[in-house]
Input
Amino acid sequence: MINYIRSESYRILHTKDIYLFTGLMALGILFLNVGLYVSAGAISGFQYANVKFSLSFLTDNMLFLAVAGAILSVLLFSGERRIGVMKNAVAYGISRKSLFLGKCIVSFAAAFASMILLTAVYVISAVLLLDGPVQPYLGLMLQGIAVNLLFAAAGVILAAGFTQFFEKELVSGLAWMGVVFLLPAVFYMAGFEIPLLAKIASWMPRNYLMTDVMAGMSGYLCLWSEPAGAVKCILAGVAGIIVFAAAGVFMNRRKEI
Amino acid sequence: MKETVAEVHDLTKEYGKTRALIDVNLSLRRGEILGLVGDNGSGKSTFLKLLAGQIFPTKGEVILFGAHGEKELEKQRKRIGTMIEAPGFFPQLTVEGNLEYYRIQKGIPGKEQVREVLKQIGLYDRRKTYGRQLSLGMKQRLGLGSALIGEPELLMLDEPINGLDPSGIIEMRELLIRLCREKNITIILSSHILAEMEQLADEYCFLDKGRLLKQITAERLEEECSGYIEIRVDEPELYTVLLERRAPGRPYQVLPDHKVRIPGTAEEPEFYSRLAVENGIGVLSLSVKKMTLEEYYMELKRGGTES
Output
């Protein structure tokens, strides 16, 4: 598996996908902060050109970490079956389990490196261009990233599993959205009738990030600012990693290529 | 006795109700080139994919280098190079980058082998070209190059000369023969171009509709194809009785339209025409023929050639 990870790292560093992805995301972030900065000069009484508002975008949408990681994972490994490289790896004796776990590790490492860079662009451009105090908003956002990173990793693992299993990227993407967004929504709705499902739903990131996190101009209310909330995010992330990794190994163990 | 590199027992693969491969038994010895001959859908690619572990058998067993069982086979597959169906490579990596990718994946130290393989496959001057910019023939060469990284002991190539120009075909042929003779690499080769196969294979496996019709050495095949007389007589039943008396043990086949085929007799047509004439049997025509590999395969499919 180590050699597979090394070869994939070589490929990723020598192709454009990761650079394009990170570059486009950085442009998007810059566009947001520059947009706020320009608006402050162009619109009188514009109240949103501050660090508090800018950072609330991510703080309020921590699931975006998982979405971005999954997109990157699909981008890096999509079409492997179509271009015939997966069959070569299998024919060379790399087990399907090693392939899957290798993809998870490489995807997460790439997504993590990209996230560090993008967070730096986000924070530095916000601090340089926008007004207002940086703290406690920066601290809350970084805490949020730290505690939700595990679920982001779980999202990457789920994406890697689906990308290996399904031939088409669209199907992988829809399946991923189904598990991360649709399934929790169904549990949430069903929870109004069945208390047990409500309990389960409350541990699903899409649900607790929707109900227990609020960030914007009116203030920051973050689940992870209390130890119990932070632990909940971490435990949900660990559970996600275990469940999605087991599912990925199981799904792909006898997959024909 | 040469070592058996690969063998399969009762190998069967079903896709739903479709049987792609049915109870195939065969073995392959070190340093041989095995030619897989068969039409589209005869099971050639399925057979190669089963050996490569890309698909799983419905029934039966694969043994590679004496090992069996999925875990052990995975270990032994590190000794194999494959190009099955289309060559697998990354279009956004250069030729050299693709080989480097496989070099790292196979844990080969140093970059010398990449250069050596680039020269072997004739793409050294194109090493900086991106995979997506290659012609079909060059893609085939790159596919072969990926398979050669790691100096495999068993090479499995599915239609390797697809898309190659005439000089490319000659180069590929020479390379495969050299790999086999000099490095003692065992090669399994499938191709539609049977004339090309005839110049390479030491042994043949004829497949039809998933069944192995025959496994035969090139020497034996040469004997069986060495030539035959096809005589058309007005009384074929009587002629075969005479044939059994005057040339006991000589194989023959009775074909439609009053024809009798007598293999291995291209040198003595007079004897067989005289046999008919002297016994009052009218000879309608007599021809001396040599069977090509295509004809042999077609004959096998019709069930006309003895096992």
